[in-house]
Amino acid sequence: MSNADTVIAALRSGHDSLAALVSGFSDDHLAGPSGSAEWDISQVLSHLGSGAEIGRATVRAALDGEPNPGREFNFAVWDRWNAMSRRERADGFLVSNEALTALYESLDASTRESLLVDLGFLPAPVDVATSARMRLSELALHTWDVRVGSDEHATVAAEATPLLLNAAPELLAWTSKPEALDGRQAVLQVTTTAPESVFTLSLAEQVSVDLAAPEAPDGTLTLPAEAWLRLVSGRFAPRYTPAGVEATGAADLDLLRKVFPGF
C-alpha cells in the first residue's frame, strides 16, 4: 500500500467508527458537552461536516483542473451549517463526511500518486497523501472531542495515531504560543509509546520538533503517542491526562499546556 492508501484507509475506519456512534445520538446527546469548551457535540459535527464539504469541493477542483473554490465559498458553507439545527448537523455530517471519504477512495493508484491539491491556505499545492492526512488529523482529533464528552478516558484512534505522529512537525511553529514561555528556553526529549519514538522538542522563540533525539536534554517527557497528539492540539487538560505520563526537569506539563493551547 502507498502512503496515500494507508491514510485513506484510516479515513474510512475513522468515518465508520464515528458514524456508528453519531447514528445513535439522541437530541439531548447532541446538545451535550464536547472536548471543546466552546462547542456542544452538534457543533463539533457541524465543523466536521462543513469541513468535509469544503474538502470535497477542493479535491474535486483539483481533479477538474480548477482553482481552489476560495474563501467566499468556505464562508457560505460555514454560514449554512451554522444555521442548521442540532439534528440537521448530525445528519449532515453523516452524508458529507461519507461523500468526502468515498471521493478519496475513488482515486485510482495513478491519481493518488500524481494529483496535487490546492488547499487554499498553504503556499503550494500538496499531494493526495498530505491532503488526506490533514483531513485525518481533523477527523481523529474532533472524534476525540465527541467521545470525551461521555468518556474522560477517550483516546485518539489507534489507526490514525502513527500516521499523524510527527507527520508535519513544522506546523508547531504556528500552532504553538511561545510567548507563554516568557523568555525561557528548554530542549526536551520526548519519548512516545504505541508507537515508540524518540525526538526533540525545542521550546524557544520558535517552538520546533527535531525527529532526532537530543544529546543533552533539559528535561524528558514520556507519554503515549496519542496523548502527544492531544497535548500539542490543546486537548491535555489534567482530567484528560493519562496515568503514567512522566515529566522530568524542564518538562513542565502546566507550561506545555500553555504553550499548546489549541487551535
TrEMBL record:
Domain SCP2: 176-237
Annotated source species: Phytohabitans flavus
Name of this protein: Mycothiol-dependent maleylpyruvate isomerase metal-binding domain-containing protein
GO MF: metal ion binding
Domain Mycothiol-dependent maleylpyruvate isomerase metal-binding: 11-147
